[in-house]
Specification:
23% helix, 33% strand, alpha+beta
Length: 113
């Protein structure tokens, strides 16, 4: 599945539609692929960015496994210009050919949008 390696951060409804057209489906809190895709689309339209887990290792991010310290979230992080870029596993995943790829949401930092 070479197309999985080429996944980029998901920040537009158009890119989501492109992935759906390539055979990906969205898994989310509704357990209904179509409703979950529509909810994810609404989040993207609000300016949220979801990053596929497979994107992080090739871009220099490290992972912190879920713990009480991370409130049960798996966190991907990288320090950029002395500021941590942190993303946590969301309730959404992309699925293709039986492989589930968790999507991570950027953490909002106070004072940094």
């Amino acid at each position: 599945m070479d197309d999985v390696k080429s996944l980029n951060p998901l920040n537009t409804a158009e890119y989501l539609d492109e992935l759906l057209g390539e055979g990906f489906t969205v898994k989310g809190p509704r357990d209904d692929a179509e409703r979950d895709a529509n909810l994810l689309r609404k989040q993207l339209e609000k300016g949220k960015e979801f990053t596929p887990e497979v994107w992080f290792p090739e871009n220099g991010y490290k992972f912190v496994e879920p713990s009480t310290f991370t409130q049960g979230y798996r966190i991907a992080y990288k320090v950029i210009d002395d500021f941590p870029d942190e993303r946590y596993n969301s309730k959404y995943s992309l699925i293709k050919e039986g492989r589930e790829i968790p999507l991570y949401l950027k953490m909002e930092s106070p004072g940094h949008q």
